[in-house]
Amino acid sequence: QVFFQSPGSPRNTELRPRAAAMGSKLKAVVMMNGLPGAMGMEIGAVVLRRGHELAPMALTGKDCPLECEVSEAGRTVKVSLVGAEKPDLQKQVVAEMQAKHGKSLVVVDFTHPTAVNPNADIYSGCKCPFVMGTTGGDREKLMKVTKDSDTYAVIAPNMCKQIVAFQATMEKMSADFPGAFGGYSMQIVESHQSSKADTSGTAKAMVGSFNKLGVTPEFAVDEIRKIRKKEEQLAFGVPEDALAGHAWHTYTLTSGDGSVQFQFKHNVCGRRTYAEGVVDAVEFLLEKVLSGSKKRLFSMIDVLSEGNMQ
User: ∠ at Cα 157 (156, 163), nearest 5°?
Assistant: First the structure.
């Protein structure tokens, strides 16, 4: 059994060594689209803790507050929010923030699956660098519009570096040992907070690797069991105090005669590990923008391979 668990620890409000040394580092201005959502607030806190800046305006969903505040490390930033019901104003705001902050601006998107493509169209339309952590939407269209516009971006279904490493390991294993699990059946169960509308993008991404390893019959994405009800989450083992923010995944492979079983698990309570990974991606992307990298479209595996994640 392979098991990764983040128990979720209280936020450390002290500046980390890297943040303390930010004077000699590149400083980003992050437009945190998705505030005042829980993930947006968590990322905003990490942005401030590492010594970066939060843009004073951001995009949000329909019927959300007009503003919010993010406080961390002795700093409080008020952010004005523009809802999805005002698409023209959203385009204008992104353009204004880009004009004001120039190459220092990096957009982070943790909004809603229905906003993935409209928002990506906005970012690509003005070539504004972005980190897309929102899952769902038309992923092929997302990748195409980003690539065709030559926009700098990190697009990934998961921002936790250990899980990214696990995904990369399984992808390599499937390439090196295709069919190693021939004759094995598979089940995938994932549980997230009830507010997550779509099936886990991480679980979906793992399906391809397991299919290359030979699971029988070939596993389909729509076979992933998605848990969002409290009673089922508790029965799955999710701690009650983590119901509002967690990501638990179990991949079970069983031999044809039932005598052998493999389980791969990654269980995360809270959001901090993802938020830290997002800001790693922001720092990575800013460096690529300022250095004029010819490659412009990246994944979290690219970020991890660089070796500078915190």
Answer: 95
